[in-house]
Amino acid sequence: MDLFRKIILVGEKGVGKSSLKARLDTNLLFDLEQEVEKTSLELEQMDDQDFFLGILELLREESLEVIVDKYYTNNEYFLFMYSVDSLDSFLKILELYNHISKLKKDRNFKMVLVANKTDLCTKNERKVSKKKGECLARKLKCPYYEISVKTGEGVDSSFVDMIHHFIISKTKQKHQDIVEDFKNLFHRQELTDCSFATNSGKKIKAHRLILESRLAPCKVKTIRKLLLTVTHEDASVFLEWVYTGYTHPSKVSLITSMCETISVQFKSLSGVTSVIKNLRNLYKQESSKDFTLKVKKESIKVHKLILVARSELYRGFFLSIDKSTKSVKDHSKNSTETMKSLIRFFYTNRLDGNKTKNFMNEIENSIEYFQLNMKSSLSSQLPTPKKNKMCQIM
Questions:
Q1: Kindly report the CA angle at 110 between 108 and 115, in degrees rounded to 5?
Q2: Which residues contact 261 (CB under 8 A, 6 or more apart)?
Q3: Quick check: 266 pLDDT over 70?
Q4: What pLDDT score does 133 carry?
Q5: Can you tell me whether residue 59 is helix, strand or coil?
Q6: Distance of alpha carbon 133 from alpha carbon 118, whole angstroms
Q7: Which helix or strand (DSSP H or E) is residue 115 part of?
Q8: Residue (of 104, 49, 40, 48) closest to 77 by Cα position
């Protein structure tokens, strides 16, 4: 099950691992060679997913190397725990981390650092200060939490936050791959059209407009970090907008100019409606998780996350679109709002919330009308293409 995540709970004996497990879920499922036991926990629905958590806990410290090698290397989520009343358990964290890192080699793993037994602070029994814990977390480049399993303080909120951290970390890694795939695509100057090959073997025509007009994973909230490697400032701004649907208000004019240039290159709305038709065909391939983009004799991997952006519209900042939609005029009063919606959608990939669900049906029912009647209206609103640095990267 793809959504089932196993978090490995590691730490010195007596730091509270078993107590934490018992507080989260007391349902023991099975034993693994009487050394590792596994419990399950169904958390609240997170990110529209029912998230299931499994915990593997080391019971006999003398089996550390055997257990870590046998069970830990196949997992990527780790919760390192120490007790604030035990300096030895704190010092053991770095040893455990180095051992697991050596076993994992180049394979990435995500971790958090948890300090337990904070209820002892009021009794002057604390041996490891919060400052030391935070310092170690910075060294290991991971989040830091303080909890008291005994009183329950911080357990629920911290654990939910940990899960979100693991989800985001996994998403960031996936999008690093996406960025590399699309760098290869954008660098193909000769590309004018291509086809998507789905997992079922079916090929669907895809216009380059799909790849240039902000069709991208709108849920990515950490794209800025990925774009730090882009040296061309305009290219960085444009790619951020392509992937997230967001741009800083001061950069809106640049994005607007770029979109207008792309629009003029396609000259008529028929190209847009054709793209929408092809997108609808792609959406119907729900069983497909990834696609292969065929460019001449070469193949480039395309993640479906990029293709679903238009169905999950990102409500970010875009301040100048009303200037375009308000200037649209048509003799048919009943169609004016739909035309405005189309232009807003084409420029910004954004709709008002109450129009999102019905928009694709409106487009499908009105495609013939748009092709016949909106061609001149839309083209008249587009300015002459401007020369800018962005054109050089397309």
A1: 145
A2: 385, 386, 388, 390, 391
A3: no
A4: 93
A5: coil
A6: 12
A7: strand 110-116
A8: 104
The rounded distance, in Å, linking the Cα atoms of 143 and 167 is 13
> What are the angstrom distances between the C-alpha of 168 and each of 46, 332, 376?
12, 47, 45
Q: How far apart are CA 293 and CA 306, in angstroms?
A: 12
pLDDT at 387: 35
> Cα(244)–Cα(255) distance, rounded to whole angstroms?
13
Looking at the chain, the domain(s) classified CATH 3.40.50.300 span 4-171
CB 84 within 8 A of CB 126: yes
pLDDT in tens, 300-326: 555 554 444 333 322 222 233 344 444
d(CA 67, CA 73): 9
CA dihedral 253, 258, 259, 262 (to 10 degrees): 160
pLDDT at 157 over 80: no
Q: CA 128, CA 105: separation in Å to the nearest integer? A: 30
Tokens of 205: 């025509």
Burial of 93 (C-beta count, 10 Å sphere; 0-12/13-18/19+): buried
**Length of the chain as a residue count:** 394
Checking if the pLDDT of 135 tops 80, the result is yes
Q: Which residues, at least 6 apart from 22, have a Cβ–Cβ distance to it below 8 Å? A: none
Strand spans (E) along 264-309: 290-295, 298-303
Pick among 3.10.620.30, 1.10.3730.10, 3.40.50.300, 3.40.640.10: CATH of 4-171: 3.40.50.300
Tokens, residue 356: 């999102």
Residue 93 pLDDT exceeds 80: yes
Q: How far is CA 62 from the centre of its chain?
A: 40
Q: Are strands 203-207 and 298-303 parallel, antiparallel or unpaired?
A: unpaired
